[in-house]
Amino acid sequence: MDVSIDSGKKKIIPFIQSGDYFFRRGVIAFRKNHLSRAVKLLERAVKLTEQEPVFHIQLAAVLSELGHYERSNDILESVVQNLDPGHSECHFFMANNYAYLGLFEKAEHCAIAYLSDQPDGEFAKDAHDLLDLLRFEKEEEGDEWENELTPTDQFLLEHEKACQLLEEGHLQEAIVLLEKLMDEEPSYWTAYNQYAQALFRLGNVEKAFEVCEHILEEDQGNLFALCNMALFYKKQGQQQQAESLIQALSAVHPMDRAHRFKVAQVLCAVGAYEQAYDRLKELEWTSISSDPEWHFCIGVAAYHLGQEEIALRYWKKAATLGVQQAADYYAMSIVDILQKEDVTYEGWHVKQKSRQNS
Question: Which InterPro entries does the record match to this protein (predicted)?
Answer without folding.
Answer: CellSynth/LPSAsmb/PSIAsmb, TPR-like_helical_dom_sf, TPR_rpt
